[in-house]
Amino acid sequence: MPRGGVRGPHKRKPLSERFYPKVGRVDDESCWGWEGATAGKGYGVIGIGGALEKRQIGAHVASYMIHVGPVPAGMCVCHECDNPLCVNPVHLFLGTYSDNLQDMVRKRRRVWVGVPGANNPNAKLTDGDVAMIRSRFAAGGITRAALAVEYGVSGTHIGRLIVGANRAQR
d(Cα 23, Cα 34) in Å, to the nearest integer? Predict the structure, then answer.
């Protein structure tokens, strides 16, 4: 036996053999839940490459590669179902990075950091709503919690609007 107790080079199992044990329910229609490791924003990841080129790719990308084929350069694997843990190849499609961004915006999933107030496409409140909230709270007879329920936002958000914490952004 070689020094250190290791017998020859470590051979990694093929991607598909490592992939399937980490997939939950498998059927044609529903999402296949990834039960392996995850990375940023809740996407599943799996390792590829040998000892010298070991790296991680998205589990959904691995699923596409196993079931459909290689991902062409400049393309990304997108989710039709918008479930980051889904690896069902029926729910996956190829698109450019621009296509993926447009899909995200169209489905209102994009986080619009730095776009304050009603100018943010994901805003729940209009400028008129904010003015009404401030006016009603100042007049008394309604709590922050009641306003939060009425307008479908958190009590913390209502509190920040009332004290003008977001004014610097407007």
Answer: 5
The CATH class given to the 15-106 domain equals alpha beta
Token output for 169: 């952004």
Q: Per the confidence metrics, is the pTM higher than 0.70?
A: no
Helix (H/G/I), strand (E/B), else coil: 84: coil
Region class of 82: left (phi > 0), else alpha (psi between -120 and 50), else beta: left
Q: What is the pLDDT of residues 50-63, one digit of tens each?
A: 767 788 999 999 99
Choose among 99, 34, 35, 25: nearest CA to 60.
34
Phi and psi, residue 18, nearest 5°: -90, -25
Domain ranges of the chain: 15-106, 117-169
| DSSP conformational letter for 85 | T
